[in-house]
Design a protein that fits this description.
7 helices, single chain, N-terminal domain of MutM-like DNA repair proteins, Helicase, Ruva Protein, domain 3, alpha+beta, 2 domains, five-stranded mixed sheet, binds zinc ion
């Protein structure tokens, strides 16, 4: 699942290589394309986007927003969606569902293994599901506001961090990383955290994401369909030594909802399902 650090670098690359270009053709490849494309304008996805000039590309939470003249394309890649920027001659990856041919000569492709992501075409971003409810960006909130917002929640801290309406852009992987840096057990209840621990969480959120952005920039380069995660400290590192203390990294959960943490560095919390 792309999260804030990956999407931020995708945005940087697209900013450099796509903004200013015009879409010469937009191709929806059935059957997957019909599932991921949501035309909220009802005016025709390919029809509206053909000859449209990309004026701006921004990121908000886990959405990438392409801005055209009074028109937006909001891409939410969810768990398995990726964008790929390449030459038209490059072999298509399996599960390529949408292809934009750009006046720059590149193709921008949307690839999604499980077709869980969405590409919303709209004239009004408020109509995009889950978009208006997004909380603040992690780098755009003060320590005081972060802690005040946090106090409104009572559940487990990892669950709170991954709620887009609390704070935007953090998913399963980076929640694990932030909590490891903050030395907080992922299943501790927010109500159990003292002021110093909430403060630590704020600091770790910003530093973890900032460092990850720098690392992803180096590892991803122009290959925006990649998801470099090898450098992470704990997420998907079950059984490997904790980089801080050497204790084997613990694993709870399965499939897409895996939680990894270090029992030694992140003490406390009742371990569910064990
Ligand atoms: Zn440790």
């Amino acid at each position: 699942m792309p999260e804030l650090p990956e999407l931020e670098i995708v945005r940087e690359v697209l900013q450099r290589r796509v903004v200013g270009a015009t879409i010469d053709a937009a191709q929806i490849i059935p059957p997957g394309g019909a599932i991921v494309v949501r035309d909220l304008t009802n005016e025709g996805f390919a029809r509206l986007l053909t000859h449209a000039r990309v004026n701006a590309i921004t990121r908000r939470g886990k959405f990438l927003i392409f801005g055209f003249d009074s028109l937006y394309l909001a891409i939410n890649p969810k768990l398995t969606g990726r964008l790929q920027l390449c030459a038209p001659t490059e072999k298509r990856m399996p599960k390529t569902h949408v292809i934009f041919s750009l006046s720059s000569g590149d193709e921008l492709r949307y690839v999604d293994q499980k077709r869980m992501g969405q590409l919303y075409l709209t004239r009004d971003l408020a109509r995009v599901p889950d978009f208006s409810a997004l909380g603040p960006e992690p780098f755009a909130i003060s320590r005081e506001d972060f802690i005040a917002r946090l106090r409104a929640y009572r559940g487990e801290i990892k669950g709170i961090l991954t709620r887009g309406e609390f704070i935007a852009g953090i998913g399963n992987a980076y929640a694990d990383e932030i909590l490891w840096h903050a030395r907080l057990h992922p299943y501790r209840k927010r109500t159990q955290l003292n002021a110093e621990e909430m403060d630590r969480l704020y600091v770790a959120m910003q530093s973890t994401l900032r460092d990850a952005i720098d690392q992803v920039r180096v590892e991803m380069g122009e290959q925006i369909h990649l998801k470099p995660r090898e450098f992470l400290a704990v997420h998907m590192k079950s059984g490997e030594p904790c980089p801080r203390c050497g204790t084997a990294i613990s694993l709870v959960g399965a499939n897409q909802r895996i939680t990894n943490f270090c029992r030694h560095c992140q003490p406390g919390g009742l371990i569910r399902g064990m």
